[in-house]
Structure formats: structure tokens, C-alpha cells
Design brief:
Layout (H helix, E strand, L loop, with lengths): L2 H9 L11 H13 L4 H11 L17 H11 L13 H13 L4 H20 L1
């Protein structure tokens, strides 16, 4: 099952209620989980170069919106020297998939992702007031 199939299962978990987090919240939470680690960039590039790169090129891609602060983290990776010549160049969807995979790969994935979704929501709300 793909990362986004697993994320879809997470969306339907009974724990995803009050509030119910949607795909952008869950993907953004996965990005936050991964970026909690100081070695996030290393882990993401390692996964992309050792696993994601080996997938068939016709593997369906998933597109979904994410929240701005997490988008900016991924955009920084895309613009980094590690994503330029002579290295292969990866797109935002590759970085997003890597974050979803790495977050879901944790033994405490469900709890941690929902916790980060709550934190991200609270952080966005505090910026509004």
C-alpha cells in the first residue's frame, strides 16, 4: 500500500475525531513530525535516493494541498544545493511522499501524527488572533 493509501486509512481511524483532520492537516502533520528531527533533511534525501528513486516512473502521484509553514520547509529542500546538479532533481511531491513515509514508519505514528495536526492547528489559530 502506498503512503497515501496508508494516510487515507489514518483519516478513517476512530481517533481522528473532535476535530476531524483532513488530508492537508495529516500531510502537514507528517512534514512536521519529520522536521522535528534535526537530521530531517538527511533522512528525507536518504529515503528519496535509496527507496523512492527505485519506484517505477509510472507510479501514480498524489497531489494535495498542505499548510504554508510545512510547504515552506519542503520548498527549502527543493531549492537546496542537494537538489541541484550534479545530484538528481526532485520535486515537491517527492519530498512530501518521503515525509509521509517517514512519519508513518514510526511505531507511534498514529498518535504522533494526530498530535502534530493538533499542534499545527493551534499554532495557525494563535497567528490569527
Amino acid at each position: 500500500m502506498t503512503e497515501f493509501g496508508r494516510l487515507e486509512q489514518l483519516y478513517h481511524e476512530p481517533e481522528n475525531q473532535s476535530p476531524r483532520f483532513h488530508t492537508p492537516d495529516l500531510i502537514s502533520a507528517c512534514v512536521s513530525v519529520v522536521f522535528d528531527d534535526v537530521a530531517a533533511a538527511d533522512r528525507i534525501f536518504h529515503y528519496i535516493h535509496t527507496a523512492l528513486l527505485l519506484r517505477p516512473t509510472d507510479t501514480p502521484k498524489h497531489t494535495a494541498a498542505i499548510w504554508r509553514s510545512q510547504y515552506e520547509l519542503l520548498l527549502a529542500l527543493q531549492r537546496s544545493p542537494r537538489n541541484r546538479q550534479p545530484n538528481p532533481q526532485f520535486n515537491l511531491d517527492h519530498f512530501t511522499t518521503a515525509c509521509v513515509h517517514l512519519a508513518l514508519d514510526r511505531s507511534d505514528a498514529k498518535h504522533t501524527i494526530f498530535e502534530h495536526a493538533r499542534r499545527n492547528t493551534a499554532k495557525r489559530a494563535s497567528a490569527i488572533t
